[in-house]
Write a structure and sequence with these properties.
The complex is a heterodimer of chains A (364) and B (120).
Chain A (H helix, E strand, L loop, with lengths): L8 H6 L3 E5 L2 E6 L4 H10 L2 E4 L4 E6 L3 H8 L11 E8 L5 E10 L2 E6 L4 H11 L5 E5 L2 E7 L3 H7 L12 E6 L2 E6 L8 E7 L3 H9 L5 E2 L2 H10 L26 H6 L5 H10 L3 E8 L10 E4 L2 E12 L4 E9 L8 E6 L2 E8 L12
Parallel strand pairs in A: 3-13
Antiparallel strand pairs in A: 1-2, 3-9, 4-7, 4-8, 5-6, 6-7, 9-12, 10-11, 11-12, 14-17, 14-19, 15-16, 15-18, 16-17, 18-19
Chain B lengths: L1 E3 L4 E6 L2 E6 L1 H7 L2 E5 L6 E2 L4 E7 L3 E5 L4 E6 L21 E5 L11 H8 L1
The chains are: A alpha+beta (364), B mainly beta (120).
Chain lengths: 364, 120
Amino acid sequence: MEKQRTPLYDFHIANDARMVPFAGWDMPVQYAAGIKTEHLATRNGAGLFDVSHMVQVELSGNGADAFFERLTPTDIGAVAEGRVRYSMLLNDAGGVLDDLMVARLDGRLHLVVNAGRATHDIDHLRQNLDERTKMDVHHGKALLALQGPKAAQILSSLGLDLDGFRFMDIRHFTLGTVPLVIARSGYTGEDGFEISMPANAAVDIAKTLMATGDVTLAGLGARDTLRLEAGLPLWGHELDETITPIMAGLRFALSKRRRKAADFPGANIILDEFANGPKRQLVGLLASGARPVRDGTILLHGGVDIGIITSGGFAPSLDRPAALGFVETHLATDGTVLAAATRGGETPITVVNLPLVPHRYFRG
Amino acid sequence: MLKFSEDHEWANLDADICAVGISPHAVEQLGDIVFVELPDIGLAVNKGDAVAVFESVKAASDIYSPAGGEIVEVNNALLDDLTAITPESAMANWLFKIKINDAGDLESLMDEAAYNAMIS
């Protein structure tokens, strides 16, 4: 099947990207510099990611808030104009259908969902839609993520006024004549921005950012190593229809009012785990030695299967292999030594608290 | 005699000693290499056995023996600096040498022109 291309496809090719199929899209996994260089440039300066494959959905109408709340554990009334919240679509078993970002801008709700789940999510939303809510799926918009400790000064140097613009804020901006919607958010653990724009402006905006001299193009490979170090879950790995938000360490995403009301999908299961703890929970894992331990590796304690690696690879900022995985809750304490059942035998692997690399969001 | 496998190994036979490496294309596709495991000297191998491992940031790749025989030399100097494993150095960086039992094992491999056609 023909892969979809973002408005930056030719720009990627011109910048020596290696393109790979991802969720039906042709996306850059890395550029010539390589994943480690792109990762470290993002941690130390600023990385620019094309995330135009993610799908933007707008909800409007009198029913939009109530509609959104029927599907998620978020107190959407508490999300003020100009604010962004991390949320998720839940099923009746308390599992996560997808995780997403929701923003309130111009009185409407703006959702950004994972590319790989977009078709599912849009079907799910449509099936639950009521006559008081209008849903628009925005195809053909570009979304760029500028991430890293230098991201703010780069945008300021281009004339954007970031005064009072904090982590999880969203606003309209204009760069030259191009209207932008920028959220101070991202998925790297760093301060950063997600910039939505008309498709026909994407190449010019990317070139303008690159021309500052402080920006490194970064692909999906670095995006994955950065979010792994930041302990941020990826749907299909740390989240799926059988994993609850409690298991995945996302208690913060369950609004207090919604917990009291117990009126979201799977509330009985999720609230039981909230009070009593889940059977397994997400942890960081550091294996001994230089060899990465990969997704799907079973974790043992005393020879018994007590967990599994869900994302395993190399962590450039730690300069060592690192992983995320689920382990039985009684073993999910920092410093517990387990064994990874690797092909060559058992490799000692130590449970560590998340995140593996501290978050550096700008909270003002 | 230089030959290439479909799995991107190269095999260079000199008398009954076959040096084995991975192609520039394979190194480029792997990206940043973070771990390499090479076989032990003296290991008896069959054609097609996984005898070495390359791990990049993203993925693990097995390296298969292109012929049966015995591992007689291993290039452990490669392990000192994995960043020196580049597409440019890939044809010089042999991984291990096999004293082969049967040169016929290499007959199914491609010559350089056929390999280049496969990856282009």
